[in-house]
Amino acid sequence: MTTPTPPEPVPPVSPRTVLFLCVHNAGRSQMALGWLQHLAHGRAVGLSGGSEPAREVNPAAVVAMAEVGIDIAHHTPRRWADADLEAADVVVTMGCGDTCPYVPGTRYEDWPLDDPAGKDLEAVREIRDHIRTRVERLLEDVATMPRSDDTVP
């Protein structure tokens, strides 16, 4: 009787990188990043940036996210960098139109969401909740996305 050979270990799939882009990187993209960091559980990592970063994250977005236990108060709006684009498996744009960069071969999604700038807290809560739903769907999808640098047994 021969002992069966154990199966080869399957290497772990590296998490996907999602880049959230909007103009000011102060509301939608920051809330999306907060949701992704909260919900991903290792399935994805997130980055965010803007074409014309604001000085601070929208205070209403900070409050709305804090209400659901997510702290984005320490986030800082920043301009997207070429390194962000190179790292991204998925780029999610939110209202930046032609100012958002485009990299051929990278998956893009455009999320038509209202800008929370100047909106009251109730409106920002609705935007926050729409973003959560979209991030949940995105995480389900990116968890099974093939990537050229993943090893297939």
- Low-pLDDT segments, ≥5 res: none
Q: Classify the helix fraction into a percent range.
A: 25-40%
Domains counted in the coordinates: how many? 1
CATH fold node name: Rossmann fold
Envelope shape: globular
> In DSSP terms, counting alpha (H) and pi (I) runs of 4 or more, how many helices?
4
Instruction: Please identify the top-level CATH class.
Output: Alpha Beta
Cα gyration radius (Å): 18 Å
Question: What would you say this structure looks like, in words?
Answer:
The protein is α/β, with parallel strands linked by helices and 153 residues long. It has one domain: Rossmann fold (3-Layer(aba) Sandwich), CATH 3.40.50.2300. The chain contains 4 helices and 4 strands. It has a 4-stranded parallel β-sheet with strand order 2-1-3-4.
What's this, in brief?
This protein is an alpha/beta fold and 153 residues long. Helices cover 31% and strands 14% of the residues. It has one domain: 3-Layer(aba) Sandwich (Rossmann fold), CATH 3.40.50.2300.
Helices and strands in order:
Blueprint: E1 16-22, H1 28-39, E2 44-50, H2 59-66, H3 82-87, E3 90-93, E4 107-110, H4 121-142
Parallel strand pairs: 1-2, 1-3, 3-4
Characteristic key phrases:
4-stranded parallel beta sheet; alpha/beta; Rossmann fold; 153 residues; globular; 31% helix; 4 helices; 4 strands
